[in-house]
Amino acid sequence: MTLEYWKDYSSYRVIAKRSNISHTSCIRNIFLIENILIKSGIFNLPEKKDLTKNKGTNNNLLAIDDTETPIERIKKGNYPHMY
Q1: Total structural domains in the chain?
Q2: What values do phi and psi take at 39, rounded to 5?
Q3: Calpha distance 26→61 (Å, rounded)
Q4: Does 64 map to a domain?
Q5: Where are the alpha helices (DSSP H) in 1-83?
Q6: pTM of the model
Q7: Is residue 26 part of a domain?
Q8: Radius of gyration in angstroms for the set of CA atoms belonging to the chain, rounded to a whole number
C-alpha cells in the first residue's frame, strides 16, 4: 500500500478500497511504514542546514510563482437558465 501511495499518489480511500480494508487502517499502515523507514536512518533527507551549505557543487535556483489570481465568478442575476 505504501509503495502504491508513493507511486501513484492515489487517495487513501482508493487504496483502501483496492486492498479491501478500511480507510483508517490504510492511513495507519502507510504512516507506520513511513515512520519505520524514517527511524531507520537510511531514508532520511538531509537537514536544512546541510542543504544551505555550499559544498563546491553547482548552486541551483528554485523560483516559485505564487501570484494570486482572482476567481472568475458568475455575477448575480446572470445565471444560465435551464429550460
Answers
A1: 1
A2: -70, -20
A3: 37
A4: no
A5: 2-8, 12-19, 23-40, 48-52
A6: 0.52
A7: yes
A8: 22
Please check whether residue 66 lies inside any domain of the structure: no
Q: Look up residue 45 and give its three cell numbers.
A: 533527507
Contact assessment for residue 29 and residue 1, using Cβ atoms and an 8 Å cutoff:
yes
Q: Angle 7-13-16 (CA atoms, 0-180°, nearest 5)? A: 80
Query: Are 14 and 26 contacting, i.e. CB atoms less than 8 angstroms apart?
Result: no
Closest C-alpha among 6, 68, 71 to residue 43: 6
Dump pLDDT digits (tens) for 44-62: 666 666 656 665 556 666 6
Express each pLDDT in 4-57 by its tens digit.
898 888 889 999 999 999 999 999 999 999 889 888 877 766 666 665 666 555
Cell 490504510 sits at which residue? 26
60: in domain: no
